[in-house]
Write a structure and sequence with these properties.
The chain is built from 16 helices and 17 strands. It is globular and about 60 Å long.
């Protein structure tokens, strides 16, 4: 393919090709977790991961993905297991038809990972930010792209390396039917995602200390790289479109180009210059795979691919993994909810929404919505709406519909405090300010 074959119009068509009829909409779920050795609480290293991945391959039929003869991931059917830079293990789930299938996938992964890790005296925690260890205690996964990213991060925000090595998240991925549908889902999800951050707030610690944030992970992401992270104001413009997102992505500095097994460092260069074959790209023939790779290096709070990714939640216990896609499916796959929420958020402006994100990272459920409403009241409204949307979907298993997966979120709301607030109380009242106890709580396996 010649460089002239890759045009801006083709990049727009890339997103257009993601449009799917409602009956073909799927649900994708991704979740990361920290592995640690129970004996000394230290993070697992890459050698540990090699053993774990080899066992998953041999015992459960996963196919290995290698780089320089090292196992850096696994694939099975449409699912994959990958590694974040600090050794966080991530399951990127298959696109599935309903939440019962999603939860079976999550539970199967949990079971398999436990069976191969227990004999190694290794356990896992779902938490938004690693509570105890410093960057110097964490080994960077030897993937070429991470070396490029690591070098570039030091030139950008203050916490890029923290983001890479010490954060985890839960993510839900949903489809869109048309450009208009994408626009509505993008706007609503971007505006109300702070409610999810507050519900999922689960990262009050860093380096063994209590921070000033309930979601320290959210604050770290805000201070990672303003070129590629955060809230996208253009989404709330009336003219927002697939083309708008292409223009945005073209303006985000690149990290690399991959050819065969080699990564070429083009960090800071313009993808727009790449299309036009300007310096320093003269000798490289551009492909659509380059575009797809570039899109994976853009990290806004909601991200567009051939589907929408909702990226705001702290890592948490296994039950919270199933709850996140349930929350979004009930709201965004239900036309009544989508239209009514669209009407509500049109009254909010971008400055109010950005402030909303800042406040929930700090005070969680005590924040106010952009229109001054008590956040707990608003979340109750959202959860009730989501439940009604899932009831209307009426997909059942053993006479229960998908709304049962919202139960962990209703429980948080009924308690009136997030897990981060519970950790803070335990830190002062029970642990004598020693975060080692967080590794021993019977929480992460729930």
């Amino acid at each position: 393919m010649n460089n002239s074959d890759i045009t801006k119009e083709k990049l727009v068509k890339f997103f257009e090709s993601g449009c799917k009829k409602k009956e073909n909409w799927k649900i994708g779920t991704e979740h990361e977790k920290f592995g640690f050795r129970k004996k000394n609480l230290k993070p697992i290293n890459f050698q540990d991961i090699q053993v774990i991945f080899k066992s998953l391959e041999e015992k459960f039929g996963w196919a290995k993905v290698t780089e320089n003869d090292l196992i850096i991931g696994l694939k099975k059917n449409l699912s994959s297991i990958s590694l974040e830079p600090g050794g966080q293990i991530e399951l990127s789930g298959a696109p599935l038809c309903n939440l019962f299938e999603t939860c079976r996938e999550v539970n199967s992964h949990h079971s398999e990972l436990s069976l191969v890790s227990d004999p190694l005296d290794i356990d896992y925690m779902g938490i938004g930010f690693l509570p105890k260890w410093d960057l110097d205690d964490i080994e960077t996964v030897p993937k070429a792209r991470y070396k490029i990213m690591k070098n570039y991060m030091t030139k950008k925000g203050k916490h890029g390396l923290d983001m890479m090595h010490r954060t985890t998240t839960i993510q839900a991925n949903l489809d869109y039917e048309s450009e208009i549908d994408m626009k509505n889902k993008f706007r609503v999800s971007l505006a109300i995602q702070p409610a999810v951050i507050a519900l999922y707030a689960n990262s009050p610690f860093f380096s063994g200390k209590l921070s000033k944030f309930l979601s320290y992970r959210s604050w770290v992401w805000k201070n990672t790289d303003n070129d590629r992270c955060g809230v996208l104001p253009m989404v709330f413009d009336e003219s927002f479109s697939f083309e708008s997102y292409v223009d945005y992505a073209l303006s985000v500095p690149m990290y690399f180009i991959k050819r065969n097994e080699h990564y070429y460092d083009f960090s800071g260069c313009s993808f727009r210059d790449f299309i036009n074959q300007k310096k320093p790209f003269e000798s490289f023939q551009i492909t659509m795979k380059d575009w797809e790779d570039h899109l994976t290096t853009i990290f806004p709070e909601v991200r567009l691919k051939k589907y929408l990714e909702f990226r705001g939640a702290d890592g948490g216990p296994w039950s919270n993994v199933c709850a996140l896609p349930a929350f979004w499916v009930g709201l965004l796959y239900d036309q009544k909810n989508l239209e009514e929420l669209s009407d509500i958020i049109t009254k909010w402006n971008i400055n109010q929404i950005v402030k909303f994100y800042d406040e929930v990272a700090s005070v969680g459920l005590q924040a106010k919505t952009p229109d001054g409403k008590n956040l707990k009241v608003f979340i109750k409204e959202l959860l009730n709406r989501s439940k009604q949307g899932l009831d209307r979907r009426n997909i059942k298993n053993s006479n229960k519909n998908e709304s049962i997966f919202l139960d962990p979120l209703f429980e948080i709301l009924n308690k009136g405090e997030s897990q981060a607030e519970i950790w803070k109380k335990m830190y002062y009242d029970m642990w004598e300010k020693n975060v080692d106890f967080i590794y021993k709580e019977n929480y992460f396996g729930k």
